[in-house]
């Protein structure tokens, strides 16, 4: 055996000795210590758990299901006398990554919910009818109409959004309510808003289509899956009725201009071209935008 082989054998034996010492140390430590998962700020509390004895009065028994009363109780999991896990950033229901996934999904479908479950649909359709009645083609442009509809929607829905934030988001973020309770608290003000705008006949039609028994009076028995389409149909109906009312004075003005042109023998001249300035003048003198927007907001109050 040469010198290199001897050095290799010595190093090999030393490694085996070190590995054995590490294994022995881990075994001894496992018998004497309690696993405690906590943040760096909880060092004193962790030392308390490590130093406690195994007497009956100091044991940490398994919590019975349903015994937690606050969000802080849900954040601590005690198992017998050997393991204590304390964690933050949740209420003990969803993993952090899963919560992020749910939030991203909610953000993705938020535009659809904003358009269908709020006053946005009615407002945008009425503003579109107003522009068409004025015959101004693209003035105001679509981006301006959408922005106006969004701000008016936030103005109308502010009490509903505030109630959702207070009763659902804040308690859930604090761990005071579960996920299902948060969803129920969030959908309740939205249901109240939609029930106030939907018509009984629309709800009854969709209840019949879904083969759901209903007495026609108790709104608590109406599922949300039935209430949403009934609300959308009602919003479309209301928007077209308002649009028709807005169209009436401008149609009368078109008829007057067309009659004058025919009496003057100017049949080749399009009446809409001549009537458009008069429509704009009439709309401005009547303070049309203020009238339309204010009366439109009053339909939701």
Index terms:
single chain, 301 residues, mainly alpha, three-stranded mixed beta sheet
Polypeptide structure, described:
This protein has a three-stranded mixed beta sheet with strand order 1-3-2. The chain folds into two domains: 10-86, no CATH class; 99-298, no CATH class. α6 (142-173) crosses α7 (179-197), α7 runs parallel beside α9 (224-263) and α8 (200-209) packs across α9. 15% of the residues are buried. A hairpin with a 3-residue loop joins β2 (76-79) and β3. The protein is built from eleven helices and three strands. It is mainly alpha-helical. It is elongated, with a radius of gyration of 35 Å. The model is unreliable at 32-43 and 52-60 (pLDDT under 50).
Q: Describe the main β-sheet briefly.
A: 3 strands, mixed
Helix content: 55-70%
Tell me the β content. under 5%
The strand order across the widest sheet is: 1-3-2
Number of domains: 2
Radius of gyration: 35 Å
| Mean pLDDT over the residues | 77
Number of strands: 3
Low-confidence stretches: 32-43, 52-60
CA(first)-CA(last) distance: 99 Å
Computed structural class: mainly alpha
Order of helices and strands: HEHHEEHHHHHHHH
List the total number of helices: 11
User: How would you describe the shape?
Assistant: elongated
Concise structural overview:
This protein has 11 helices and 3 strands; from the N terminus they run H-E-H-H-E-E-H-H-H-H-H-H-H-H.
């Amino acid at each position: 055996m040469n010198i290199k082989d001897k050095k290799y054998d010595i190093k090999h034996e030393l490694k085996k000795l070190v590995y054995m010492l590490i294994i022995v140390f881990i075994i001894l430590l496992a018998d004497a210590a309690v696993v405690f998962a906590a943040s760096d700020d909880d060092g004193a509390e962790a030392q308390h758990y490590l130093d406690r004895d195994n007497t009956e009065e100091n044991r940490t028994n398994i919590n019975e299901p349903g015994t937690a009363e606050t969000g802080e109780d849900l954040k601590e999991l005690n198992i017998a006398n050997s393991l204590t896990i304390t964690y933050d950033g949740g209420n003990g229901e969803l993993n952090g990554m899963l919560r992020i996934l749910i939030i991203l999904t909610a953000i993705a479908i938020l535009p659809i919910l904003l358009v269908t479950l709020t006053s946005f649909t009615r407002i945008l359709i009425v503003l579109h009818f107003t522009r068409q009645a004025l015959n101004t083609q693209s003035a105001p442009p679509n981006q301006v109409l959408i922005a106006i509809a969004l701000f008016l929607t936030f103005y109308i829905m502010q009490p509903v959004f505030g109630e959702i934030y207070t009763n659902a988001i804040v308690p859930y973020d604090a761990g005071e309510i579960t996920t299902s309770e948060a969803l129920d608290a969030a959908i309740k003000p939205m249901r109240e808003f939609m029930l106030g705008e939907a018509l009984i006949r629309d709800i009854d039609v969709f209840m019949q289509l879904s083969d759901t028994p209903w007495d026609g009076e108790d709104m608590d028995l109406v599922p949300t899956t039935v209430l949403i389409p009934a609300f959308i149909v009602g919003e479309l109906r209301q928007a077209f009725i308002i649009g028709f009312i807005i169209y009436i004075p401008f149609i009368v003005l078109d008829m007057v201009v067309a009659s004058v042109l025919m009496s003057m023998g100017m049949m080749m001249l399009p009446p809409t071209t001549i009537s458009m300035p008069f429509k704009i003048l009439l709309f401005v003198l009547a303070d049309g935008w203020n009238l339309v927007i204010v009366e439109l907001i009053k339909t939701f109050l």
